[in-house]
Structures are given as structure tokens and as C-alpha cells.
Write a structure and sequence with these properties.
By secondary structure, this protein is of the alpha+beta class. Helix 3 runs parallel beside helix 6. The longest helix is centred in the last third of the chain and has 13 residues. It is globular and about 60 Å long. The N and C termini lie close together (about 10 Å).
Length: about 230
């Protein structure tokens, strides 16, 4: 078995069932990315060009498995879901579609940097996971706003592209690509309450304005934790 994938399985035992069928397809020696991708996500491009890449299927679902060696000499990485026929009733912004078309969405990650945007997430970017609105928190949010005499923002068209295990949601506005965090439960120190909004509702993430900022910040967090040219665990 691929040593990186074995580390992933040991790290994420709950993710697998005994009946799961895992089919290894091939490893990629060099990742082919478009010039548009390279120029849009330069830090992510640098990170991906250092990755060990394995194409596989789990129960016939295609994935790309990106792995690196971190500074503790441990394997770390992402299991990216490739959704060739995924569709939504809403349109993703072009930068999001570009990301998905070339590397897929992050379905799982292991041995993440601490702290990192990738910590404790159910999914990141994956099209089938995305939804509009704030995931059933609408009534609670409006009640909190009414209780504090604050005007709710228009959240109905916001697209959730990252969901935390505790229900916190990272969203973008498809019109201006602005990124917001809706967090009813958090202990983050890198966020500020959105102007004229109650605590434990909408936040801005420090140093992140739009979707590209978010992706590049994630890439920088991982890039700072890996050893370069780390191909010794294949």
C-alpha cells in the first residue's frame, strides 16, 4: 500500500468501512495546472508542485490524494474529491469552479498545521457539500438580531463553501466574492464581528477579503509546515 495513504487511513480510521473498495490507479510525477490556475493561486501552485500525488477510487468515487512530509517528518495531506458530474441549483464563482476543475475539493485532510483553516472541517470547497444560506440557522440568527435591535444582513444567496464539524460555516457572496464566517460556536482569535452584527453570528476573518485570499491563506499555512522536495515516503 502507498505509505502516505496508509498514514491517512491510520489517522482517519473512522472514515473507512471494512466493505470499502479502494482502487489505486497511478501516481502523478508532475501536476499539470493551467496558467489561469497558476496566476490565480500562486501559493497553492507552489504547494501542489511539492506534493506526492496519487489518483485512486474509493467505492468507484474518484479522488486525488496530495501528500507532503511536514517538519516533524510525518506524512500529511489532503484527500480531494473529484466530482465530474456534480451540479448545484446555484452558480459558483469562477475562481471556485477553477479550483474544482483542476484539483477537486478537500474531502478530508490529515496531520494538519495547528492552527489552520483546515482544522476540524467537514469539507472544503467540494461542490456537493456547498449550499446557499446559513444551514438552518436562519430563524435563530434573525431572533438574535431582533433581540439586539440590529438589522440582519441578506444571507439567502451566500454560498457556504466550507463547513466546520460544529456547524460553523464559511461563505462567500457570489456578487462581490467577499468571504464571511457564520459562527454560533467559536473560540477563534483571528476574526472580528461583522459591523452592526451581533456576536456569534457573522464575522470577518482577519486578512481574508475574498475567496482567493482564503485559498491562498490555506496554502500558506500548509506551505509553512512542509519540507520541500519531500518525496521519500512514496
Amino acid at each position: 500500500m502507498n505509505k502516505d495513504f496508509e498514514t491517512f487511513k491510520n489517522n482517519k480510521k473512522w472514515f473507512f468501512e471494512a466493505s470499502d473498495k479502494v482502487e489505486f490507479l497511478y501516481t502523478e510525477n508532475e501536476l499539470q495546472l493551467s496558467e489561469t490556475f497558476n496566476s490565480t493561486f500562486p501559493l497553492l501552485t507552489e504547494l501542489l508542485h511539492q506534493a506526492r500525488i496519487l489518483k485512486l477510487k474509493i467505492n468507484d468515487q474518484p479522488y486525488k490524494f496530495f501528500s507532503w512530509t511536514n517538519k516533524d517528518d510525518s506524512s500529511c495531506g489532503w484527500l480531494n474529491k473529484i466530482e465530474e458530474n456534480a451540479s448545484t441549483t446555484f452558480k459558483l464563482i469562477e475562481e471556485h469552479e477553477l479550483l474544482l476543475s483542476e484539483i477537486g475539493g478537500i474531502h478530508e485532510s490529515y496531520n494538519q498545521p495547528e492552527p489552520s483553516l483546515s482544522n476540524n472541517q467537514n469539507f472544503m470547497f467540494t461542490q456537493s457539500g456547498c449550499f446557499t444560506g446559513i444551514g438552518g440557522c436562519e430563524e435563530t440568527y434573525e431572533e438574535i438580531c431582533n433581540g439586539e435591535n440590529k438589522q440582519p444582513i441578506d444571507f439567502k444567496d451566500l454560498i457556504c463553501f466550507v463547513e466546520e464539524a460544529n456547524g460553523n460555516m464559511t461563505l462567500y457572496n457570489p456578487k462581490n466574492k467577499e468571504v464571511l464566517l457564520f459562527a454560533g460556536d467559536h473560540c477563534f482569535d483571528n476574526v472580528e464581528v461583522l459591523e452592526n452584527q451581533p456576536d456569534y453570528t457573522f464575522y470577518k476573518i482577519n486578512n481574508i477579503t475574498n475567496f482567493v485570499d482564503y485559498v491562498e491563506t490555506l496554502a500558506a499555512e500548509w506551505k509553512n509546515e512542509i519540507k520541500w522536495n519531500s518525496f521519500d515516503l512514496i
